[in-house]
Write a structure and sequence with these properties.
There is one protein chain. The chain is mainly α and 239 residues long. The protein has 2 domains: 9-81, Winged helix-like DNA-binding domain superfamily/Winged helix DNA-binding domain (Arc Repressor Mutant, subunit A), CATH 1.10.10; 95-232, GntR ligand-binding domain-like (Four Helix Bundle (Hemerythrin (Met), subunit A)). The chain is built from 11 helices and 2 strands; from the N terminus they run αααββαααααααα. Strands 1-2 form a two-stranded antiparallel sheet. A hairpin with a 3-residue loop joins strand 1 (62-65) and strand 2. Helix 6 runs antiparallel to helix 10 (188-206). The chain is elongated and about 60 Å long. The relative contact order is 0.13. The model is unreliable at 77-86 (pLDDT under 50).
Length: 239
């Protein structure tokens, strides 16, 4: 028997939206309902709908015009029958879903790091933070140095399962969904805020204070999720 491949929720939602476009419910050139209204209409959460919209934009089905809205682009016959976002692998996770999962494990990882971190571990975390600051000051998105910061904390946990789990989550950031979401919601201002949050995490780990480390990491990841869930109208233009 042929096994059925489970679909990510955002892909299912994207397929529904594409079906509404193909049926004429959302005409070519028209503006889609606001994300909040679309979530209510389809019966899904706003984060899941946002992931679906990003997938459809990556595929070229819709166009996001920051400050204006989300518009339906011309659909060819091939597009109307194709699977959603062929450039997105079937196994690719939704960015906001990944961030929610990270908040469940990284808060405890920070606490473990505060308990077990050696001087070498703390130095590695601090070096990564300095690299983030240097990248941001130079106008570069400090994505790689941010990953280095979180993985340095993972190394300090002395738990290979947690380390490998987080590594998988962070690798997802190199995919087209994460990249496009970052195009809209990452900005110099957002990274200044994120770096300050990272400093709080480092300070708690340096103090070997598990409670403070847990709390500061929870705050950081909650704020990060909030930044990526902001209004499209407040997103900086990519152009």
């Amino acid at each position: 028997m042929k096994s059925l491949e489970p679909q990510r929720l955002y892909r299912q939602i994207a397929k529904q939206i594409q079906g509404l476009i193909s049926s004429g419910e959302f005409a070519v050139g028209s503006r889609l309902p606001a994300e909040r209204d679309l979530a209510v209409q389809l019966g899904f959460s706003r984060p899941s709908v946002r992931e679906a919209l990003i997938a459809l934009e990556v595929e070229g089905v819709i166009e996001v015009r920051t400050g204006s809205g989300i518009y339906v682009k011309t659909l060819s016959k091939r597009q109307s029958t194709a699977k959603v976002a062929p450039s997105i692998t079937p196994a690719e996770w939704g960015p906001l879903e990944v961030m929610s999962a990270r908040s469940l494990i990284e808060t405890e990882m920070a606490a473990l790091a505060a308990e077990h971190a050696t001087d070498k571990d703390i130095k590695a975390i601090a070096v990564a933070l300095k690299a983030m600051q240097k990248d941001a000051k130079a106008g570069r998105i400090p994505r790689d140095s941010d990953i280095a910061f979180h993985m340095a904390i993972a190394n300090a946990c002395v738990n290979s399962v947690l380390h490998d789990t987080l590594e998988g989550y962070l690798q997802a950031r190199t995919g087209p969904l994460f990249e496009r979401l970052g195009d809209y919601f990452e900005s110099p201002a957002s990274w200044v805020a994120a770096i300050a949050e990272h400093q709080e995490v480092l300070s708690a780990i340096e103090a070997h204070d598990p409670h403070a480390a847990r709390k500061s990491m929870q705050k950081h990841l909650k704020q990060a999720h909030k930044r990526f869930s902001a209004s499209w109208r407040s997103a900086p233009s990519r152009h």
